[in-house]
Amino acid sequence: MRYAGIKEIDATTLSGADPLAELLAANQPFVIRNMVGHWPLIEHGRSSPAALRTYLKAHALDRQFAVMLAPPNVRGRPFYDQNMEVNFVERRMPFDEICDGFAEFEDAAEPPLMYCGSIELAKYFDTIAAQHTLPLGARKPRIGLWLGLKSDIPIHSDYSDNLVCNVLGRRRVTLFAPDQLKNLYIGPLDNTPAGRAVSLVDFNAPDYKAHPLFAEAEKTACSVELSPGDMLHIPTMWWHTIQSLDGFNAIVNFWWRDSNLPANPDAALVNAISAWRDLPDDEKQIWRAQLDHYVFGDVEKSIAHIPEAGRGVLGPASAQTAEKMRLFILRLLNE
Fold first, then answer.
1. Residue 122's closest CA among 144, 104, 90, 99?
2. Which of 19, 26, 154, 223 could form a disulfide with 174, with the two C-beta atoms 3.0–4.6 Å apart?
3. CA distance 128 to 52
4. Whole-number mean pLDDT of the chain?
């Protein structure tokens, strides 16, 4: 897969009950300038970062909020230390105390890492989620708020579709197509800075001796700079790095999967590694054929001979099929 760039859309051309449907179906990145410039969060941010924080504090629920903390020498990059341990600590604090930290360090020449990732709006704030929506038709997204000082998020991918709405500060996003996996030197799956496996390449200072194939990935990369109000679509499994360029910044993102199956793809990948990676090559080829037959090939043809009522976990995606799969997998794992 290759792409020429990130398509820019004029918000005034959108219409209908599901105006983004055609764009999203293309499964390519696009940006819509000032798509959400009318949001209250952005209006408060235009006044000042302090005004935005005051607005958020007024709506924050009485809960502990998770925040990443690290000294300035990590350069705002949640990553690993020399022992492959994460280079930050995570604390849970009242939201007011976190905002005090943002205020103290937002103008620092060398700020610490201080970052709140993916705060679910509906669970941590009253009314804000209902005031910050997108025209997404029947999709039911998870809406998250991301707040922090200057940060440099390593290259990673997400298995959900992602609409990134920039709220405060400038942000640079660089994208790589899914086929660049082989050139990105992805780290461990189970020991990650924030739940997703990340590239071990320092995007801002690549070590081409240690990571020579990254030069090939760079040839395919596309970057876009977002201002408050801009919205970027990052399709499922596209690799991306996000750099915030100002002292205090915020985004809201919408995540969803166009699937009736709740299963975590990462769990399937790890289980596949456990079951198949160390098999002899001839056995691997047998299981590859099984995957082609049931997953990647003509699925309808592969099960056409089974009466619909008896297809079980081979049936079409639905909540009922998902539950059958869950129970079947649990039974297998417990054998």
1. 144
2. 223
3. 12
4. 93
Q: What amino acid is encoded at 48 in this protein? A: S
Return the exposure string of 140-161: e unless at least 16 CB atoms fall within 10 Å of the residue's CB, then b.
Answer: ebebbbbbbbbbbbbbbbbebb
Q: Check whether 3 has a pLDDT greater than 50.
A: no
- The CB density around residue 255, as the number of other CB atoms within 10 Å, is 18
Nearest partner of 114 among 102, 124, 103, 104, judged by Cα: 102
CA angle 260/313/273 to nearest 5° reads: 85
Query: Phi and psi (nearest 5°) for 174?
Result: -115, 130
pLDDT tens-digit map of 298-326 = 989 999 999 998 988 888 877 788 788 88
Question: What is residue 96's DSSP assignment?
Answer: H
pLDDT at 263 > cutoff 50: yes
What is the signed CA dihedral for 110, 112, 113, 114, rounded to 10 degrees? -120
Q: Is 75 helix (H, G, I), strand (E, B) or coil?
A: coil
Indicate the SS3 state at residue 167. Answer: strand
- CA torsion sign for 299, 305, 308, 311 is negative
Q: Where are the beta strands (DSSP E) in 203-297?
A: 222-226, 231-234, 239-244, 249-256
* Contact in structure between 34 and 11 (CB atoms under 8 Å): yes
Distances (CA, A) of 289 to 68, 299, 302: 44, 13, 12
And the tokens for 170? 């400038």
Say how far apart CA 166 and CA 46 lie, in whole Å.
Answer: 12
Contact assessment for residue 201 and residue 185, using Cβ atoms and an 8 Å cutoff:
yes
Q: Rounded to whole angstroms, what are the CA distances from 109 to 95, 274, 283?
A: 24, 46, 57
Which residue is listed with tokens 């909540």?
319
pTM: 0.92
How far apart CA 22 and CA 196 sit, in angstroms, is 28
Give the residue from 89, 88, 85 showing the smallest Cα distance to 187. 85
- Two structure tokens written together for 276: 């198949």
What pLDDT was estimated at residue 149?
97
- CA 8 – CA 154 distance, rounded (Å): 24
